[in-house]
Amino acid sequence: MSVAPVVAGIDVGGPRKGYHAVALAGGRYASQFSSTDPAAILAWCQHIGAQHVGVDAPCRWSTDGRRRPAEAALQAAGIACFASPTRAAALAHEAAARARDQAGWYGWMFEGERLYAELLKRYVLYAGELPAGPSCFETFPQAVACALAGQLVSAKQKRRVRRSLLMQAGIDIRDLTNIDKVDAALCALAAHAFTRGRFVRYGVADDGFVIVPDAAPPAVQIAR
């Protein structure tokens, strides 16, 4: 008897919000976990036996201050996405914000960096070749939503749109009580598609890939 593959998706927030993770087994909702400690997230992923982990945070910083190739490709496809800065620029921004006694904007990216550092102790970062063992990769909920719908969908109405798309994908959303958990579930769907080899990748290995499911036929006309 075959065992349904377990995968996980992780939404990355700032230092106070932390990480929200959702697990799928055979493409169906299985469990969830939240923590501000990346080591606890890794331990949970191992405990549930997650084969692949999709993370909503950049796996690489920009090397030249411009968009990474994956971000440029998403933008060219009509999917608005954040442009990662260089690590030095992000550090300078955070330092300037602290000097003004303000919250910096890049804290969540450094939390993503901390998470990848932990995950890479047990998972291999996808670099273009299908891994033989457990792996992790960067994904993007808005791109996943567009792939599930088979068209560009509204990011401004993401709470309604993304929950609807999860339901159409057969995901029980009753325990997904906030947008962070919804986004984690979308990341997990990307990991489920990755497990089946039904995914597309944006970017290049040196600057990091963004993985999303194969484009599907429109489930419903949600965009408008």
Structure write-up:
- The chain has 224 residues and is an alpha/beta fold.
- It has one domain: 2-Layer Sandwich (Nucleotidyltransferase, domain 5).
- It has seven helices and eight strands.
- Strands 3-2-1-4-6-5 form a six-stranded mixed β-sheet. A two-stranded antiparallel ribbon has the order 7-8.
- Helix 1 crosses helix 4 and helix 5 crosses helix 6.
- The radius of gyration is 17 Å and the shape is globular.
- The C terminus is likely disordered.
Can you give keywords for this protein?
two-stranded antiparallel sheet; disordered C terminus; about 35% helix; six-stranded mixed sheet; alpha/beta; about 220 residues; Nucleotidyltransferase, domain 5; 8 strands
Number of strands: 8
Described by the principal axes of the CA atoms, the overall outline is globular
Radius of gyration: 17 Å
Count of discrete alpha- or pi-helical segments spanning 4 or more residues: 7
Distance between the ends = 44 Å
**Helical residue percent?**
25-40%
Mean pLDDT: 93
Using the coordinates shown, work out and report the CATH topology.
Nucleotidyltransferase, domain 5
Order of helices and strands: EEEHEHHHEEHHHEE
Uncertain runs are: 217-224
